[in-house]
Design a protein that fits this description.
Strand order of the largest sheet: 1-2
Order of helices and strands: HHHEEH
Oligomer: single chain
Strand content: under 5%
Helix content: 40-55%
Length: 94
């Protein structure tokens, strides 16, 4: 999963809208975000492919905060770095 998926303003707005408002159609999302419906559909496809939103049988999309949180935890785990100890090595004696 690419980090750029969440680094897009429209996609983050879609996720926030769905989490706050519940399942919504692309038309309702476009209206609520004041964005073209084609743009919203494009970003919904990307979010669905990445597992952040789910398409429902009635044509609406949903996102659950717990699902997004799990995805973010998995993403953070991929980039965790081992930090070396901060104590300096002992000085060599001559």
């Amino acid at each position: 999963m690419s980090t750029s998926i969440l680094m897009n303003r429209t996609r983050s707005q879609i996720l926030r809208f769905l989490i706050r408002s519940g399942p919504s159609s692309p038309c309702a999302l476009a209206s609520g975000l004041q964005a073209p419906q084609t743009t919203v559909r494009h970003h919904l496809f990307i979010l669905e492919s990445a597992g952040y939103v789910q398409a429902l049988a009635d044509g609406r999309y949903s996102a659950h905060a717990s699902l997004v949180e799990c995805q973010l935890i998995d993403l953070a785990a991929q980039y965790s770095v081992q930090v070396p100890p901060t104590t300096p090595p002992p000085l060599a004696q001559d």
